Amino acid sequence: MYGQQAQQIIKQLTNNGLLETTEQGVGIVNLSHDQGKKFYSTLVRSDGTTLYITRDIAAAIDRHDNHHFDRMIYVVDKGQDAHFRQLFGTLKAMGNSWADRCKHVKFGKVLGMSTRKGEVVFLQDILDEAKMRMLQNMKNSQTTKVDNLDDVAETLAISAIITFDLKNNLESDYRFDWSHVLQSHGDTGVYLQYTHARMCSIESLCGISLDTDCDTTPLVEQEARQLIQHIAAYEDAVYKAYIDIQPKHIVGYLFKLSRLSSVAHKKLNVKGSPDNVAQARLLLFNSARQTLANGMKLLGISPLNQM
């Protein structure tokens, strides 16, 4: 793909005096003036054929011309850092000012990942293994309250893997550990799901209806105020994740939201409290649940109402 366009790129670079030929007959674009040291992009082999980067240049120009993007983000492992510096540098050398709006989002390696099927690991193997382990955990648990165990186990497995992966800095290597991934407590995807399901239970068992216009002045306890303040910080977490292109900010926010919700739940009873207090607390827990659900959905996680 983009083979014909790549040849046009070579002609354009040649006509503009940007393409140099080495003693070995290889076509390069010198980018040293951008990098402060000898740095170049190799675009043509000695036999005249183009390379991946030449076609990547053609693809980038085609995407800009057709989509007029605000930003173009390449999510590729950090081992390709030099490739993307060459790509963006060449685009800029060609006079494409929008090259500054192209970004390489790097991700690190996952260490220690293995399944019972062997050492070559595919995502489907990991998902199947996680689902099997989660299903076994649910069958062994006396608190499991759902009949559709298979579907819930699959959702929990996906939640656990997504959260374990995205809670780290994208560029950092990390060690995959089954004993931590599927834990139901601590900073895990299963804990997020448990918190959401528990707050759904509060709403369904409290015996009163939600009133979004109720008086919230009874929420005077420290646990309530801390939870309210954290709910209000949701937009900041999402914005920071957007600016940094780091989902870890949302994951960290949701972990803290779950912890604060758990503390508040232990202290602030809804059922059995005076009506005005119960209404205010129910609204608080409903707001926390909705915020948790919204954040989970941003991460690609489907919130569970029961576990």
Structure description:
With 307 residues, this protein is mainly α. The protein has twelve helices and seven strands. The chain has helices at 3-15, 32-35, 52-67, 81-93, 123-140, 149-166, 178-181, 189-205, 222-232, 234-244, 248-267, 275-298, and strands at residues 19-21, 27-30, 40-44, 72-77, 102-107, 110-111, 174-175. A hairpin with a 5-residue loop joins strand 1 (19-21) and strand 2. The protein is elongated and about 85 Å long. The mean pLDDT is 93.
Annotation keywords:
307 residues; mainly alpha; 3-stranded antiparallel sheet; two-stranded parallel sheet; 7 strands
Blueprint of the fold:
Elements: H1 3-15, E1 19-21, E2 27-30, H2 32-35, E3 40-44, H3 52-67, E4 72-77, H4 81-93, E5 102-107, E6 110-111, H5 123-140, H6 149-166, E7 174-175, H7 178-181, H8 189-205, H9 222-232, H10 234-244, H11 248-267, H12 275-298
Parallel strand pairs: 4-5, 6-7
Antiparallel strand pairs: 1-2, 2-3
Overview in brief:
The protein is elongated and about 85 Å long. Helix 4 (81-93) links the parallel strand 4 and strand 5. The chain has 12 helices and 7 strands.
Summed up, the helix count is 12
Question: Which whole number gives the mean pLDDT?
Answer: 93
- How far is the N terminus from the C terminus? 47 Å
The sequence of SSEs as H and E is HEEHEHEHEEHHEHHHHHH
Helicity range: 55-70%
Note the overall shape: elongated
Largest beta sheet: strand ordering:
1-2-3
Strand content: 5-15%
Rg on CA atoms, Å: 26 Å
Largest beta-sheet details: 3 strands, antiparallel
- Class per helix and strand makeup: mainly alpha
Number of strands: 7
Stretches where pLDDT is under 50 for at least 5 consecutive residues are: none
